[in-house]
Amino acid sequence: MARRSACIAVARRVAEEARRILRSAGLLIAGLRPAGAGDKVLFPVEDARRALEVLKMQDITAEPCTAEFEERKAGPPRLEGPVKGYTRIGDIAVFSHVEGVSEEHYRRAAQSLVREGVVRAVFLKRQTSGEHRVAVLEHLAGENRTVTTAKEFGLRFRVDIAREYYNPRLQEERRRVAQAVRDGWRVLDMFAGVGPFSIHIAAARRARILAVDINRSAIMHLTENIELNKKKLRGCITPMLADSRILPGFVRPGFEAIIMNNPTMTPSFLPVACKLAEPGALIFYYRVARSCDEAWEEALEASPCPLTALQCVEALDYAPGKLIYRLTLRVTGSESG
Length: 337
Ligand SMILES: C[S@@+](CC[C@H](N)C(=O)[O-])C[C@H]1O[C@@H](n2cnc3c(N)ncnc32)[C@H](O)[C@@H]1O
Description:
The chain is α/β, with parallel strands linked by helices.
């Protein structure tokens, strides 16, 4: 059966790359087959404007269109029973444990994902724990392997999901933050993990980024990820294995932007951010809270330097009644006020 849909048209020679980018951005309509039209390939998309924007960022020229597309016979298997969804990281799927869903249900859902070739390995995440914010995983089906390569907007991230934090649901957020940085800025990524914020920024801007994390394994993958993406990077990234608390002792202050993506701990790091920020700097401050107001009032109380809140957005779900908010803060003076 055919269905009419909005689409974007790209030249055949860049079609494969365009497909990869659109798929990793979640913009392709999975149930419809792309179609050929002369020297062009047409991709069915939900939001043509967004698709054009995303491709333009990767220097791919595309045009909006509307066309008929064949429906695919069978998509990925629909999960049966109480298991409703999963997070896909590269070729691995992760279920987040929900109270009341049995292990047997998870195992059956995991086996169907592997059987249908959707992913190669499936794990159950019981919780995220410790200072490194690492998932506690139980193997359910497929290969018992936790290292994979995730893709975000054409960038690649090597990650060991049993030893390092990584969440693909933040990809849009990282892109938005990268767009807010300007060429020539010094940027501090205070909790860099395997480097997704730093690498998005370096891909978008000629910025100098200091990427710090306390997890040795994450810094190893961050270093590998800089190499993996080096052809796409305009800015430069310096990885550093350190506790961010001690940075003011040996790092030159004057950062124009600071990324604080450690939402369970952020307020206690504001004194460090204040010491290292240039007056007028932007701080991208992530915090678990019940509301924007709660996150903002807490930040104001914890900060030794004057701040103005420019924006508050919902970045991620966290727990019932709680979200991870991102406050964009401007440092409006020095620590003493
Ligand atoms: C929520 S994760 C965010 C990682 C990364 N920004 C991302 O988006 O994937 C928080 C990170 O902070 C790191 N971390 C925790 N405490 C730290 C500290 N005192 N100094 C530096 N890094 C720290 C953890 O190891 C972890 O990688």
